[in-house]
Every structure is written in C-alpha cells, then in structure tokens.
Amino acid sequence: MGMMKTPDTELDEQAIVAAAEAALADIALIRREVSKVIFGQERVVENTLLAILSGGHALLVGVPGLAKTKLVTTLGTVLGLDANRIQFTPDLMPSDILGTEVMDQDDSGRRSFRFLKGPVFAQLLMADEINRASPRTQSALLQSMQEYHITMAGQRYDLPAPFHVLATQNPLEQEGTYPLPEAQLDRFLLQVDVGYPELAAERQILLETTGLAESRADSVIGAERLIEIQRLIRQMPVSDTVVEAILSLVRSARPGQGNSDTDKHVAWGPGPRAGQSLMLCARARALYEGRLAPSLDDVHALAEPILQHRMALTFAARAEGMSVRDVIAGLVRQAKG
Prior knowledge:
By secondary structure, the chain is α/β, with parallel strands linked by helices. The protein folds into two domains: 1-91 and 122-235, 3-Layer(aba) Sandwich (Rossmann fold); 239-337, Magnesium chelatase subunit I, C-Terminal domain (Helicase, Ruva Protein, domain 3, Orthogonal Bundle), CATH 1.10.8. Helix content is 47%, strand content 16%. The chain has 14 helices and 13 strands. The strands form five sheets. A five-stranded parallel beta sheet has the order 3-6-9-2-10. A two-stranded antiparallel ribbon has the order 1-11. It has a two-stranded antiparallel ribbon with strand order 4-5. A hairpin with a 2-residue loop joins strand 7 and strand 8 (155-158). Helix 1 crosses helix 8. The longest helix is centred in the N-terminal third of the chain and has 23 residues, at 13-35. The radius of gyration is 21 Å and the shape is globular. The two termini are 21 Å apart.
C-alpha cells in the first residue's frame, strides 16, 4: 500500500505516531467535557468537532431549540477559544459583522479615523440563522471565511487564528429567509443536520437542565494546541486505497461521469473542494474515533455531511420525492459494493 506524502514539514514516522497519540488523548478529553453539557447528539457533536479539527467551517441545520447555540458556546469553552455570536436578521448590515470606521478628535482638534472591530474578530464565530440576512450581509461573512481577513477603507485587517465559523440555518421554509447560493455553501467544510434528541437524551435534558445547578464544561485545550492538532491532521498519511475511494465517490456524484443513477437524478454535483474536505475530515475522524490512520469507513461515514450541500437534484427527482441524502446513500452502497 503506497502512502501519499504531504508537502508540509516532514516528521518521521515515530514522531507522527507520538504526536497523534497525544492528540488522541486530547480529543478524548474534549469529547468527555462536551458530553457533560450536550446530551445525546453524538453525530452532531462529532461532525461539528471534525470541522474545527480540520480547520474549517460548519453549517448546522435544524429547527430552533435543539441546543445548536449551546453546542457552539460549549465548544468555545472546551477548546479555549475566544467566541462571539451574531444573530442574523433581515436588517443586519455588513458593517455590523465586520466593524466600522469612527471619527476621533484629539485635544488639538485634529480628526482621524479609527477602525472599530466588529464581532467577526473572534476565533469561534457563531452566525445564528444565517439565511435570515440579506445576500450582501451573508457575502460579507462568507468572504471573510474564505480569505481570513477583511478590507475596510483600503486597509487590510487579519482575522485571529484559528478562525472558525459555525453558522446555523433553519430548514423550515419560512417567510423572510434568503437561501445561501451554491457557491457560498461550498465554503462550508461540512453540513451538520441537527435532529430531535433520542428519548433517553431528552429525559436527561429535562432532568439536568431544569434544576438550580446545571453542569458546566471546563476548558481542556487552548487555541495554540488546537492549531498544533490541525497541523498534525494535515500530516497524517492517507493510503492510496482511501485516496482512490475519495476520488471515485466524489466523481460518482457528478452527472456525466458514467453513473446512470446520478445522471438521472443529479442536476449538478460536488466540485474538487468536496474531495479536499473528505481528505481532511477522514483524517480528523480517524483521530476522533481513536485511530492513527483514516479508513474507507471514514470516507463512507462522511459522504453525507460533506456532499449534501454541494449537489442538487433534478426537478424530476425532486418531484418523485427523492432527497439528496437518498442519492448519497445510494452512492455509498455502490461504493461498498
């Protein structure tokens, strides 16, 4: 089995294994700490953490009241990140996110401009109900997600490192929402679907959160350590088998590539960014699950969160009541043979 080398500074095998084992231990602590406050929802917690460990942004989709905001504040605490939250509304302006120039006057009456940083200057930014803001305001956020800096009056301001956006979106087709354009959805490493809790978890929520004292999560790592783990993930070797599986899965989701089901049901499929996201997240998932190398199982498990917001069905497929998830599940079944 050949190994793909990463161009990043090469560590020798033993050093990578030692570093990966230390990262495994930290990730296990993070998982334990988050579970003190967020009950059930293991897949949601896992996928959200995978996005952060892989250095990316995540889109959390679910109806209101499913603890999406609580999850983000908990992650901020546990990962030791400086966190901000913006509630998106139809009247939110780009400057409400990025910041504004203010006029200062000194004692001698000289005037000058000073930049007041907006809430985007955080390490972990929660963008709540991102589909409620106008396209212009959405694109101000999405541009900063892509470029990691903003430009105001010709001046460049770098965003803090690490910089992660966890945006939430309400799936109900309500009045007054602006769906995100396809090109902007592609900026999210993965989409996390947040469903209703299982019965046992919901019972625990009732009992644990309605008394005087609620359990709290403690900080486990800090921003510096998170960046180290993110760098390590980019250095984890990926076997040829897994690389080929990623390529064939992503390509099978595109019409015109020889997959008859896809040709019938898919209007447009995932671009190369989907494959890059799978390469990163598969490594992160291996560590999250306590393993030192990604497997085919990681690729199959991540197919839905990574592909579903990067493809769309034909009108005919939608009319038949199919969903993107059904199509991805079919592709994964084919891949497993």
